[in-house]
Amino acid sequence: MKYVSVYRRARSPFWWIVYWCPKGQKRISQATPYRWDSIQGKRKALDLANDLGKAASADKGAQGRDRWECWVSDFLELRYPTPARKKTHDRMVGGWNQWRQFLLDQHIAVPRALTYQSVLDFVAWRSSQIKRSSGKKVSKNTALCDVRIMSVILREAMQREFSEGNPCDRIGITKDKAKEKCEISDAEIDKIREELKTRPL
Question: Does some domain include residue 190?
Fold first, then answer.
């Protein structure tokens, strides 16, 4: 079944797409923001149609064993067992929990429905969150670390033939430069030494 198509509509300067909506069990027609008189307009409309087609195709088959909840947690427990790899395990599970909430909000039920645009949206979504401990926003570097975690998960999805690609691989977003820490002063060193003397060995 062809899930999407791109076409021109009378009296509209924009490309239109039509795609199958599995939830509503009907075909939906909508305008894109791309004009048909633009050189890149049709290509961008086709890219959008392709993304929607992948999502629709994946959602129709989302009752199978490729659904995230059917395998990711077990994979992480097997790959990063505790207590042998507890620190790595906790970081991977923590990153996955962020992705799990995002995927749920975006109705992305299976790996093959995740697109490059979805990854960019995740970075923006994650970077807008506020840390409970400090009240500061989550850094872009933390968001990119979570993208690397999803990249590991998607490589496993490809091995299981749940996905044809890994949109988290080489996304081209560079990390922010880490802030330089001030050198410890002599007074601070003396204070640390005095504190250590009071602690039992």
Answer: no
